Amino acid sequence: MKSVVRFLLGMLCLMVPARSATAQVVISEFMADNKKTLADENGQFPDWVEIYNTSASTVNLNGWSLTDDPTHQARWFFPATNLTAKGFLIVFASGTNQAVVGQPLHTDFSLKASGEYLALVKPDGSVATEFAPAFPQQFQDISYGLGQDVTTNTLVASGAPANVLVPTSGSLGLTWTQTSFNDSSWNSGATGVGYETAVAGFAVYNYVANVGVCDLTTAEGVISDPSQQSAVYAENTPVINYLNTVSSAHYGNDNTFPGLTIGIDQDNYALEASATITIPAPGNWTFGVNSDDGFSLTIGGFSMSYPNPRGPGDTLQTFNFPAAGDYALRLVFYECGGGSEVELFAAQGSFSIWDSTNFRLVGDTPNGGLAVKAPVVAGGGGATSYRPFIQTDVQSQMNGVNSTAYRCRTRRRCNHSPCA
């Protein structure tokens, strides 16, 4: 975790007035205003707390707890998880209360960026680490914790020359690991070597047009014809909950349309969002789009649309899926003039109007929304993506073909690199 958090992500760690008893396990770092630094398993960005085992032996965290209550009456307990010697563990302070061995951990409370009490409590009820009476005000994407001396030994630098072979058989045996092996016929590139097919969420492209976009036919034309595009912006996003101007619809925490800024009006653009959606059970599922202006939505062989411009409004339709499984999803939205926003939500069953009890944003899996995944767009993927670190992409040679690649940094330094 240290190499990811402190070195790759470049987070700031400050010396803090935390009190630690002679404990084996401590709170080493936390972030109370996480917007884009560290994503959880669902592509969301909740607060997080990092736990560090200072000892030379493994510690079982059964009975240990985290709390934001200075009376220690309200505590979130770890499952019986082993924390290895000198090991780190991230716990997301998301408020969703997930404590299953082997799964990502989430507390039943979140952290206040304005400052509050935070403590790690031992099984006997004594305090291992506490920030009392409260940690100070926190700032967006800046972590806070105990100052530590960290030594990083770089064995192979990012961007180092590499030769790569995806073998068709095991005929080379171990000969390719010998210092005298000639790898000059292999494909040349640079580290890192690998590939990535998909991340949680949607792949979204926003096409700002140089023509008026006031119907779906024109919107599709803008998407397909570069001559009608004055700019194109792309991103991976967990949910479709975009706002440009005027007001939100059903859900808060709006995102700005790719390339645009909330509150600064932009007319005439077409947005295309694609993903693979997982329907967990056959039967009726109701999908809804709140939009200003029009849209079309296709999921597998089902479709719905509101082709004309409109002010903020809902369109709901129930689809009967014959089987659980993955289905291709495509949403097209266009903005003609005035305010603009779009949301995509769903609920199991048949419904004619939206309600807050049953409907969830598609992709908002922490709160019960349907899961989606999509290819990584150029420059996208967010914190869950390995794409920024891949300089030699071997997807076409490996994906669905072979799970192994041989990689040589030089003729004297070769290794076996399984990829998935």
Give the overall silhouette.
Answer: globular
CATH architecture of the largest domain: Sandwich
Give me the number of helical elements.
3
Distance between the termini: 21 Å
Number of strands: 32
**Rg over C-alpha atoms, rounded to the nearest angstrom:** 25 Å
Proportion in helices: under 10%
Largest sheet features: 8 strands, antiparallel
Count of the domains? 3
CATH fold node name of the largest domain = Jelly Rolls
Question: Overview of this structure, please?
Answer:
This protein has 420 residues and is mainly beta. A hairpin with a 5-residue loop joins strand 10 and strand 11 (127-131). The strands form 7 sheets. Strands 16, 17, 18, 21, 23, 24, 26 and 29 form an 8-stranded antiparallel sheet that branches. Strands 19, 20, 22, 25, 27 and 28 form a 6-stranded mixed sheet that branches. It has a 5-stranded antiparallel sheet with strand order 1-11-10-5-6, with no helix packed on it. The chain is globular. Helices cover 5% and strands 38% of the residues. It folds into 3 domains: 2-145, Immunoglobulin-like, CATH 2.60.40.1260; 161-195 and 390-418, no CATH class; 199-374, Jelly Rolls. The chain contains 3 helices and 32 strands. It has helices spanning 2-8, 216-224, 395-398, and strands at 19-20, 25-31, 47-53, 59-60, 65-67, 76-77, 82-83, 88-93, 105-106, 118-121, 127-131, 144-145, 161-165, 187-190, 193-194, 199-200, 202-209, 229-237, 241-245, 255-256, 269-279, 283-292, 295-299, 302-306, 313-321, 325-335, 340-348, 360-361, 372-374, 392-393, 404-410, 413-418.
